[in-house]
Sequence to fold (69 residues):
Amino acid sequence: MQTDSPQIDISRVLDAPRALVYRAFTDPEHFVAWWGPIGNSLPREEVDFDIRPSGHQRWTEVSATDPGI
Fold:
């Protein structure tokens, strides 16, 4: 039985300032601008981040092919 919260470990080398990359993943305004496949949308009101240790990231992505999902 797993007792720890699920974790995501992302590793990539980007040609951008570290602070900007951090904001892209932790600031909802930045996040909605780039997340998801082309054509899908990420309504800002559906994004909720608490980026403190043991916090959360929750969002609802809207499919371009079936917006009702």
User: Anything to note?
Assistant: The chain is about 25% helix and 10% strand. Residues 39 and 64 are 5 Å apart (CA to CA). Helices lie at 18-26, 28-34. Strands lie at 48-50, 56-58.
